[in-house]
Design a protein that fits this description.
This protein folds into four domains: 4-164, no CATH class; 234-336, PAS domain (Beta-Lactamase), CATH 3.30.450.20; 342-415, Methane Monooxygenase Hydroxylase, Chain G, domain 1 (Up-down Bundle); 423-567, Histidine kinase-like ATPase, C-terminal domain (Heat Shock Protein 90), CATH 3.30.565.10. It contains twelve helices and 17 strands. 54% of the residues lie in helices and 20% in strands. It is an alpha+beta fold. It is elongated.
């Protein structure tokens, strides 16, 4: 450690040098200012002497001219001529006998020279405003120089400690890092050596830090490569979210599940910006905000904002924390459960249909035996000679029994187990054949075929039966309204689909699901078995059937098949 007196002496020596330098500098500037003022004063005196000499010569010459002028010329004219010739501002002529005569106007600042002339004396007046302006400039310059010198001295006195303090602090810090005994050297040399040693130390440390940085960067690149490979290999969706609720990374599986375009760049975007204002995005936003852990949580997500397609996503969230407990963000793993849930729903529907079929088959079997007996007795009774009234009642009873028998046959057909024989089926030709077969019944209903020709794996016989029931219902609905159009359209987007739209009597949207239940019909002679049977056949094909519409505005039946379909030829022509 350096002793106190050494520190004091070092500071005093450095301060003395600075003060001496600044004092000499200020003294030098003051000397320059004094020399400048002296030079200006000398210039002013020279100017004054020159002008006085010039005015004296002019006055002598004018007096001589005035004395030698011809007596015939009036005095006033001689004075005017002298003023014009010699540049005199004003001339006063005072004769010996008294009185005075003046030519010109006396200026505010003037110098007077008097000369004796024959018959009196003349006073020549010259403009001395230039001398007065020069004196004023000299005084102003001297005042400014004096104020500047005083200001410089005051600034030096006030700010000298401020100027010295950083340098003294540098000396203190230099003593802390310098070698022992080096503080007794010249202070400037001491600072330079300390600064050089510090720079050398910093460069050595920089080289070490660079080596450490390269090593860490190599490890980080390897870790990033492993992480990228891991996230890319995941079959589940993966999203990394930071503390600002912005997406850091999203793997390809996540983009596929969420229907995100491959070229869309979402890194750095918020969840709502990247995924839209959906329940899935809001759930992730809440998980980040509250650092929430979710395990096998299910949420509905709209695949696109402009359609009704819904995805059921199963997700888990993992909040991340560092060693100090600081929150880093949230990792999200999710998968699309829509196919699983759809399959479960279809299995439940098929199970319900199977159970309903078993019950219906048992009831229909009992009804059928009883109806066969009733019809047999009615036929035997009608063979006898009966009154017309009795025979008419028996005929009505037989007709009702026949209708009931047909309903039982339809119920048995609905309940009977079906074996699906899958084979490539051209939906276009199948729809066309069904429409042509029903065309004789389409009185008042115009049937149109539109769309693409597509092929699906299906049972042609069962599919024909389902389409026949659907198209027949559409034709009858249009006929009940008094006429209209039935449009049958096939499309491949997003999957092979047949839609049957009519402009008939329509239906109450709240009752749409009930039409797929047996014996629910709004037609006067309907049994309510056509749509349930079509629904059973479509479900057996792994498809889906939907009914929609409005009262008095028509209805639409949509049959959607699995996506394994191949487009063949251009659009169909109307029937």
């Amino acid at each position: 450690m350096v002793s106190g007196p050494a520190n004091a002496l070092t500071k005093l020596g450095f301060r003395r040098d600075i003060k001496l330098f600044l004092t000499v500098l200020v003294g030098f500037l003051a000397a320059i200012i004094v020399m400048l003022i002296v030079q200006l004063q000398w210039n002013l005196l020279q100017m004054q002497d020159t002008m006085n000499e010039q005015w004296t010569v002019i006055a002598d010459s004018a007096a001589a001219s005035l004395s030698n002028a011809p007596g015939a010329i009036p005095v006033e004219d001689r004075l005017e001529l002298l003023r014009a010739s010699y540049g005199i501002v004003a001339i006063d002529y005072i004769p010996i006998g008294g009185g005075s005569m003046r030519s010109g106007k006396i200026p505010r600042e003037h110098a007077d020279i008097t000369r004796s002339v024959p018959g009196g004396k003349a006073i020549f007046r010259f403009d001395s405003s230039r001398l007065r302006a020069a004196r004023q400039r000299l005084h102003l310059t001297a005042t400014i120089c004096a104020v500047a010198a005083a200001g410089g001295i005051l600034f030096l006195i006030l700010y000298l400690p401020t100027i010295l303090r950083p340098i003294e602090e540098m000396l203190d810090h230099a003593r802390e890092v310098g070698a022992p005994g080096s503080e007794h050297k010249d202070e400037a040399q001491f600072l330079i050596e300390t600064f050089r040693n510090s720079i050398a130390t910093l460069r050595a440390q920089e080289a070490q830090l660079q080596q450490l940085h390269e090593a860490e960067k190599l490890r980080a690149d390897e870790l990033q490569l492993v992480t990228a490979t891991l996230t890319r290999s995941l079959t589940s969706g993966f999203i990394a979210i930071n503390t600002d609720e912005r997406i850091v990374d999203m793997n390809a599986a996540a983009r596929d599940i969420l229907r995100v375009p491959p070229d869309a760049e979402h890194a750095g975007a918020t969840l709502l910006e990247a995924l839209g204002d959906t329940p899935f995005a809001r759930l992730l936003d809440d998980a980040v905000a509250h650092r929430r852990t979710l395990t096998r949580f299910e949420v509905v997500h709209a695949a696109h904002a402009d359609n009704d397609q819904q995805l059921i996503l199963g997700l888990s969230t993992v909040p991340l924390f560092n060693d100090g407990g600081g929150f880093l963000g949230v990792l999200v793993l999710f998968t699309d459960l829509s196919p699983v849930r759809s399959l479960e729903a279809r299995l439940r529907e098929l199970q319900a249909l199977a159970e309903l079929g078993e019950i219906s088959a048992g009831i229909a079997h009992e009804f059928r035996n009883s109806l066969s007996t009733i019809l047999g007795w009615l036929k035997l009774a009608r063979r006898q000679q009966l009154e017309k009234e009795v025979e008419s009642k028996l005929r009505s009873a037989e007709d009702e029994a026949v209708l009931l028998s047909q309903a039982v046959d339809g119920l048995l057909a609905f309940a009977r187990p079906m074996r699906v024989d899958l084979q490539p089926v051209d939906l276009t030709e199948l729809v066309r054949s069904v429409a042509e077969r029903l065309s004789p019944l389409s009185n008042g209903a115009e049937v149109e075929l539109r769309g693409e020709q597509i092929t699906v794996e299906a049972d042609p016989a069962l599919l024909t039966r389902a389409l026949e029931n659907v198209i027949r219902n559409a034709i009858e609905s249009v006929q009940q309204k008094g006429g209209g159009t039935v449009v049958i359209e096939t499309t491949t987007t997003p999957s092979p689909t047949i839609s049957v739209r009519d402009t008939g009597v329509g239906l109450d949207p709240a009752n749409a699901a009930r039409f797929f239940r047996p014996f629910h019909s709004e037609k006067p002679s309907g049994l309510g078995l056509g749509l349930p049977l079509a629904r059973k056949i479509v479900l057996l094909h792994g498809g889906d059937i939907r009914l929609s519409g409005r009262e008095a505005e028509g209805a639409t039946v949509t049959i959607e098949f699995p996506r394994e379909v191949e487009a063949l030829r251009p659009a169909m022509s109307p029937v």
